[in-house]
Amino acid sequence: MRQRTRARWVVAALAATLLLPAGLAACRGEPAVWWDDQATPAGPNPGGVAPALTAPELAVTPEPGATGELLSTEIGTRTDGQVTEVVLTAADGARIRGRMRDDGSSWVPDRPLAPTTGYTATVTATGPDGQTSTAQTSFTTMAEPGPRTGTGLYLFDGREYGVAMPVTVEFAQPVPPAARAQVQRRMFVDSDPPQPGVWHWVENGTQAFYRAPDYWQPGTTLRVWIALAGHPTGGGRYGDADRSATITIGERVELRVDNRTKSLTVYQDGARTRSLPVSLGKPSTPSSSGQLVVMAKHEQTVFDTFAELGPNEGYRVDVAYAMRLTWGGEFIHAAPWSVADQGVRNVSHGCINLSTANARWLFGITKIGDPVTVTGTRARLAPGNGWTAWDLSWEEFVAGSALPVPAGLRPRTASQAGVPS
Q1: Which residue of the set 200, 231, 349, 351 is catalytic?
Q2: Which residues have CB under 8 Å from 61's CB, separation 6+?
Q3: pTM given for the model
Q4: Which residue, 55, 218, 263, 315, could crosslink 15 as a Cys pair with Cβ 3.0–4.6 Å?
């Protein structure tokens, strides 16, 4: 990939006949008042002549004639007005749709650009007085990029999930720390109603989680777009595909497992509805304590642990109503063989055992993304062993972002919270 030390900008010619005095230039989104025909002039205005109209300044990237541009190239914009139109067309005349970033810094195509293809971008900006400027640039994309990073998005379009469902992106090849910021900028989440959140990278770079400070509100719609096809992911690799999903958040269901009482208590919309006896992991294979999330549900499955535990400890068994909690193999599931132990002692290999009737009932009311809190065991949930986004304080979570955290989402200091220092 061709490297640049400084981007050049294509600058639109100004149609200005009168420059603003120093100190009167306004920030984008907060334009200065140019003319108000209902106001009384503060000073002399000979002849009542209105101020001359001025077209906004406008500059765009890539630079004209640029070659070897990324398939994830964005049309950079810099203006003292507001970008009102971006038209991107391929050499064959096909128009590419896209959207502006919230901060107005660039326009992002809705799909990756084609390799070794010429494109022309025409950008229009409008000033507060309605005057416009236009800038145009043409560029050519790089050849088909080299080795790809396999990616996954643990969301399915149109599905309903629980209130603790983190947006989880997986990387088959770890993303090195130096590449995480530019990858994170290409991962978009919109929530309705708005509940802004932050991305957090698991230390080894194989997963990134997105969540808000609190659980999602029931009825929320999340629109997720992971735009990494052809985008650098570090180590000479590029993302394999764009991935997207629109999902909804369902009823709030929470499960709380207490090793002390050997019980699983269910809360629906904040109200305790049922408590079920359980058996957890025996001393040699304890269950993990922490804030977990239901990751998958299987009405019928097979547990085969011979490869992991060997011929002496391994087993193969049919299991019903299984709900995965960790990558390491901890589930909530029906275990008719341990009913006499449930509520009394721990005998499992780390799973949470229920009777078949209780497991069937619980399976019927839970969703992927429901929160599960386990307390009182001697094993601690390992970071990244499952969707561990909630097993961190908000302060710890935002510390894992590769980009600066917006001011409104930064953890409060002790003085801001009213706590004596």
Answers
A1: 351
A2: 7, 8, 9, 10, 75, 76, 137
A3: 0.84
A4: 55
Pairing of strands 160-161, 242-249: parallel
Q: Exposure of 303 by Cβ count < 10 A (0-12 exposed, 13-18 middle, 19+ buried)?
A: middle
Q: What is the largest CA-CA distance in the chain?
A: 100
Residue 333 among the catalytic residues: yes
User: What is the CATH number that goes with domain 148-249?
Assistant: 2.60.40.3710
Cβ–Cβ under 8 Å, residues 390 and 293: yes
Three-state secondary-structure class, residue 337 = helix
Instruction: Return the domain boundaries, the chain.
Output: 1-19+53-144, 148-249, 253-388
pLDDT class of 6 with cuts at 50, 70, 90: very low
Q: Is 27 a catalytic residue?
A: no
Active-site option among 200, 231, 333, 349: 333
Print the SS3 string covering 361-384.
Answer: HHHHHCCCCCEEEEECCCEECCCC
CA 371, 375, 379, 383 dihedral sign is positive
The class (CATH top level) of 1-19+53-144 is mainly beta
Question: With contact defined as beta carbons under 8 Å apart, do 103 and 29 qualify?
Answer: no
Helix (H) or strand (E) holding 146, with range, is none
Please determine, for residue 346, whether its predicted confidence score (pLDDT) is greater than 90: yes
Q: By C-alpha distance, which of 269, 266, 254 is closest to 165?
A: 254
Pair 77, 125: CB distance under 8 Å? yes
What CA–CA distance (Å, rounded) separates 43 from 151? Answer: 63
Distances (CA, A) of 388 to 87, 202, 378: 42, 9, 18
pLDDT of residue 311: 74
Average confidence (pLDDT) over 289-298: 98
Q: Name the residue among 202, 211, 156 with its Cα closest to residue 180.
A: 202
Number of CB atoms found within 10 A of residue 375's CB: 13
CATH of domain 253-388: 2.40.440.10
- In 3D, which of 288, 278, 375 has the Cα closest to residue 328? 288
What does the pLDDT average to over 21-40? 34
